[in-house]
Amino acid sequence: MVPWVTESGSAVPSATDVLPVEQYVAGLARKRMAAGVLFRDSAGRVLLVEPSYKANWEIPGGAVEADESPWAAATRELAEELGWDRPLGRLLVVDYVRPQDSRPEGVVFVFDGGMLDETDLVGMVFPDAEILSAGFHTVQEARGRVKPLLADRLAVALRAVDQGVTLLCEQGRCVA
Asked: FRET partner for 149 with CA separation of 20 to 30 A, picked from 36, 75, 94, 141?
């Protein structure tokens, strides 16, 4: 039973028909979330980081923690991974990801980090040793370094930048 429909099907519940809030909330679906930041250079290449803990490269970002907004997570991850305190631009991509590799379904947010150049990477320090290196790559080059899902998401994010829109995706493919 959901809180707005009674056992008899009435749309006007009585106090005894409504689930307690705690019980209702406990039954809601939960999705993991992640947030990343798309930085690019004047040649249209994207910034990728090489994590120390896995084979595939990523864009800066990571998991959204409990009681943290995706925006705050992206900002926190930039500070943790790259030591950067930079304002984020607009939301570029919202990507629903189906369960895979023993991970539950989730939603990934990609924010615009804006333009950088090679001088922004000179002397770059990785504060927590989570990141080994960083560099600019074309989307085609990225396909050889990142998982296919991220490669698709990068192409969509660049399209969102060009079109000045936010794009909705499922598994890295536009749905709207």
From this structure: 75
